[in-house]
Fold each of these.
Amino acid sequence: MTENPPHIPVMVKEVVSLLLTDPSGIYLDGTVGYGGHASELLSRLTGGGFLIGLDRDASALEFTEKFLSEKYCRERFSLYQLNYKDFPKVLHERRDHLLSGVLLDLGISSINIDDADRGFSFQKEGPLDMRFDRSTGISAAEYLKQISATELARVLRDYGEERFHKKIATAIVEKAGKGEMNTTFDLKNAIISVIFGKSQLKSVARVFQAIRIALNDELKALQVVLESILSHLATGGRIAVITFHSLEDRIVKQFFKTNTLTCICPPELPKCVCNVVPRLKIITRKPILPTQDEIKLNSRSRSAKLRVAERI
Ligand SMILES: C[S@@+](CC[C@H](N)C(=O)[O-])C[C@H]1O[C@@H](n2cnc3c(N)ncnc32)[C@H](O)[C@@H]1O
């Protein structure tokens, strides 16, 4: 018997009740991870209901394959190691039927943060890797050897909103140039060598997060999937996105808003000539946040925001 998933899914009830509009529809979980949301969705599917789960992380998929197979008929779901931005590649399996719902629960599973070997945590020493998919691309250690201090400063400013981005970038690139940037503690120590006082650990967290986002090209993947998803979503089908970072939330909010517009003509035009057809209706005017009870049980849920929109 597979043990319980090592990741506690966030706002499960809210996701299921807002996303599932047709129990016999096809659902795409683009970040299936350890299967928490997927399992709840599968438990409510009936008839021809089917779930496609994607993740870049091979170890998460290995667990989820066993976990879901023990609970649900193997004919009801399929899992792929794939970047969610490439989801159209697997839709042929369902004869390219339109999707009834799409879930993106962005970021990282808690078990990956806790596993020193993955290189995401500044609390444990491990190789400086940080890749979601370790079979492709370069590790964070390699990335920091190749990047200039100017470019890294931009990454820390844009993705980490780190005030001391220039100072920290210079310290990191200098160490990397000397071959002294190989572990998570090398990175942490480079940051705390130039940042002092109370904000030290906050800067460390922001820098780790910024490098992870850049290395895995997370914001680009989100933009790409949003751009292409609506043409695969059935009328009445919904998209639910859980974000953990203000930049991700801004991208989702803006995308939803842009697709609800009924006219994009310049205000000085007396009559509409753009013929824009809105493609979405927003279901969550304000993002849904975890309850205090959920945050007490799972402190990592505290920065989560859920937004849902419906294809019209
Ligand atoms: C917060 S976890 C999802 C947890 C999942 N909802 C559950 O219930 O276990 C985010 C997952 O997204 C995956 N991921 C991040 N970026 C991805 C991408 N571009 N394509 C596919 N999976 C991605 C990560 O590997 C991680 O497993």
Note: Residues 5, 7, 9, 30-31, 33-37, 54-57, 60, 83-85, 105, 107-109, 132, 221 surround S-adenosylmethionine (CB under 6 Å).
Amino acid sequence: MTTHEVTFVFEDGRIVKFDASEDDNLYFAALKNKVRILTDCLEGACATCKGVCTSGSYELAEYTEEALTQDEIDRREVLTCQMHVKSDCVIEFPYESRVALKSKPDSRVARVSELEMISSTVAKLVVEPDAGASPISFIPGQYVHLSVPGTSEHRSYSFANAAFESGRYTFYIKVLEQGAMSDYLSQRAQPGDEMTVTGPFGHFYLRPVERPIVMVAGGTGLAPMLSILDTLAANGETDRPIRLLYGANAADELFAFDQLAKYAADGLDLVTEFCVVEPADGWNAATGHVTGLLREEILNAGDCEIYLCGPPPMIDAAEAWLSEQGHDSSLVHAEKFVPS
Ligand SMILES: Cc1cc2nc3c(=O)[nH]c(=O)nc-3n(C[C@H](O)[C@H](O)[C@H](O)COP(=O)(O)OP(=O)(O)OC[C@H]3O[C@@H](n4cnc5c(N)ncnc54)[C@H](O)[C@@H]3O)c2cc1C
Ligand code: FES
């Protein structure tokens, strides 16, 4: 019996992972793992069990053309009651996790093990779950909720470490003049402080590397890109060019220069372009908003996967420009750092 790891991603960003046998249809494999996706006919005729397979290979058994058209097949839509996985797969469903899952999202108690300001506004926070806690199984690009010690609040933060690393999780957090997490980090945080880590969540995650990659990161929007780049380097996925456009308000807010430089030594074909809105004397790279670095020639005639992460106006500007260029929106993945 050959099994593969299957990840379901629901509309609210919550994910669930389980092993599925090639012999079972995916609906049944999920049910064996206490995940009950929406179904009706179980015969490939009603389309109730439809999802989109964003990663991995599979076969579909019997289905009608009314339930799954050729266009839908081309978009990798799948009828999970007829689907048999042939590799690890990620499948997205257009409804919230509470429909399919009875349990609450995973929560772990963790402790602050490292805290350091690594640029004028960015804190590096490393947390370690208590010994014995199960590793957080996420896809690079995703995020968790971190509780703010001393309050009843929590905030969302993207993993900045590779997905296969476990036991130690790194986050890059912009410290604002005022804010629940910002006040905690700048005024009270101490190694050993307890935090609750809940998740993972998110639709912003690394897709199969089948074409060149363009990343646009604003400020701490670099965090999930580092998780993705670390994962690509560790997996030896080095044969596609990657262009990272990375901007901040001022040069002293930029961070992770050494890490970015090291990716070349790791074999990644990465070109990074920097950009700041307010250049100080001596700044010799681009100025303005990072989206100003987007230009037609880097889109590889439409054949590139695009990852956008940062403040909402940055994402809106990038998406508007990509739409003007007619870039296929299924190749554009975005995470807006809205106040959480
Ligand atoms: C999916 C996702 C992933 C994210 N990942 C990251 C990440 O990796 N790194 C990162 O830096 N951020 C990330 N964010 C943003 C992050 O979740 C927080 O929104 C951010 O860190 C601010 O949190 P805070 O508690 O410091 O500020 P908040 O308390 O949320 O305050 C937000 C804003 O409100 C203002 N404000 C607060 N209190 C008051 C008040 N009493 N009166 C008026 N104004 C007030 C603050 O000045 C601030 O501008 C992410 C967001 C999302 C949705
Ligand atoms: S449940 Fe009807 S097509 Fe799958």
Note: Residues 3-99 form a domain with the Ubiquitin-like (UB roll) fold (CATH 3.10.20.30).
